[in-house]
Backbone:
């Protein structure tokens, strides 16, 4: 075999190895790791998926927050590539890394949905458990975050529509949180810990991608544990207009 042929084969093998993402299996579910490191471990007596953001894959820069957070660093559920409307429910547990890689860490943890195959667009709702029970209401109001990748990340939304895409929720670090998201057309409603009423609603999502993958997300400084992911696809539910008007106070 000629030298150039050997070199081509070696380059092809290297590309294949580089492009192949690590997968982990938790019970019957398989997760593909996208820019996160992870493992299946025994945590509080049960097998869970543990993930952390891979800072080698996507570096973080505290001077360029908008450009280096809310990126596609997540564990993708394999086998479901057409989620559009329905329910996503998962139990998750957020710990802070020690020492902290950044002073502003808050336990960022949540869910991506309608993720395009190439990770170029998706919707996301995540929590900042560190401020969920803060004594300061202003901090509490940042406990939940919606964003739409790539054009409407948290910092952009905070500047252009303050508090419209953020809210409060009764969450905290170092405890299990059940998050349930009801996705219906352009709306997404989030419920916490089996409470009857939602804690947060996005009345009009900003992404153009209408269906795709579902994934579990963590960001800078978070060690995230996940279990009991349940996804139910549903048909679009058309809401009836009851004619009521709400006036601003």
Residues:
């Amino acid at each position: 075999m000629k030298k150039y042929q050997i070199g081509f084969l070696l380059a092809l093998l290297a590309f294949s190895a580089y492009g192949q993402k690590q997968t982990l299996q938790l019970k019957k579910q398989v997760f593909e790791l996208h820019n996160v490191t992870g493992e299946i471990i025994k945590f509080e007596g049960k097998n869970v998926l543990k993930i952390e953001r891979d800072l080698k894959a996507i570096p973080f820069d505290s001077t360029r927050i908008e450009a280096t957070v809310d990126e596609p660093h997540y564990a993708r559920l394999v086998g479901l590539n057409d989620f559009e409307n329905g329910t996503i429910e998962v139990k998750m547990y957020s710990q802070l890394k020690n020492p902290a890689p950044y002073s502003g860490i808050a336990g960022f943890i949540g869910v991506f949905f309608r993720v395009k195959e190439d990770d170029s667009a998706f919707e996301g709702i995540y929590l900042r458990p560190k401020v969920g029970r803060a004594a300061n209401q202003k901090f509490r109001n940042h406990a939940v975050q919606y964003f739409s990748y790539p054009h409407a990340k948290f910092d952009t939304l905070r500047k252009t529509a303050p508090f419209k895409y953020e809210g409060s929720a009764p969450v905290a670090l170092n405890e299990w949180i059940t998050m349930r998201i009801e996705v219906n057309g352009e709306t997404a409603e989030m419920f916490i810990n089996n409470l009857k009423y939602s804690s947060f609603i996005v009345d009009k999502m900003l992404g153009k991608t209408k269906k795709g993958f579902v994934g579990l997300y963590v960001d800078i400084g978070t060690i995230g544990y996940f279990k009991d992911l349940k996804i139910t696809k549903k048909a679009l539910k058309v809401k009836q207009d009851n004619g009521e008007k709400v006036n601003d106070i």
About this structure: DSSP finds four helices and 15 strands in the chain. Confidence is low (pLDDT under 50) at residues 1-18. The helical segments are 3-19, 65-68, 137-140, 154-160. The two ends are 79 Å apart (CA to CA).
